[in-house]
Amino acid sequence: MIDVIGPLYGDGVPLNEVLGGTNYQSIVKEIKGAAGNIDEVVFIFDSPGGDVQGCHETAELIKSLPVETVAYVKGMCCFAAYYLASACDQVVVTETALVGSIGTVISLWNAKSEEILTITNDDAVFKHPETPMNTEAIAYYRDLCNKIAGRFQEFVASGRPGLSADAFSGKVFVAEDAVSLGLIDDVIPWVDFPGVV
Question: What is the rounded distance in angstroms from the CA atom of residue 144 to the CA atom of residue 150?
Fold first, then answer.
């Protein structure tokens, strides 16, 4: 069992892990450390998501594992966390889990106006409101966002075929809605899931 708890981040500040986040490299090390001695990997998720750097590579590693993989969501599994979960053979959640928020966000500090500008990809209109900015700059960052989101969406769709367009809207879904959209496979209370307390 590998915990994917708190905000996800790439290499950098070790303090993030001390404060409850999960480093992608830690996930990779746990997977590689168990290689050859396992017949199933269960990833325990309670994460709102996080950084893009390292996410795709970690998801590709999970997807390539030659053993059964299960994403068990006992809290949240959103954004980058869902990217990782979609690489698993099964996604199982508790009755109160929240999943989704598929999309990308770029936050920029505008020193002149002292505002944070948040730009989302075109499909994920429910992720964040936008702040005023030069239209050329917004177009550039939205294009960048859309390219990153495209990779995210392609990866999720390859592991979860048949998802509806609403799954890519940036919305977060409760368990019963996530089942109907194809985001998850089953709902199992955490007290009934082996080894998870």
Answer: 10
pLDDT value at position 56?
A: 94
Task: Report residue 110 as tokens.
Answer: 């505008």
Residues lower than pLDDT 50 in the chain? none
Q: Tell me the H-state helices in the chain.
A: 15-18, 24-34, 55-64, 80-85, 135-159, 175-181
pLDDT for the residue 46:
96
Output the pLDDT for position 182.
92
User: H or E element: which one contains 37?
Assistant: none
Q: CB neighbours of 197 closer than 8 A, spacing ≥ 6?
A: 190, 191
**C-alpha span between 35 and 197 (Å, rounded):** 25
Residue boundaries of the structural domains of the chain: 2-101+171-192, 102-153
Q: What span, in angstroms and rounded, lies between the C-alpha atoms of 54 and 4? A: 14
Q: How far apart are CA 50 and CA 167, in angstroms?
A: 18
Residue in this structure with the two tokens 């367009």, named with its chain if needed: 165
Q: Which fold has domain 2-101+171-192?
A: 2-enoyl-CoA Hydratase; Chain A, domain 1 (3.90.226)
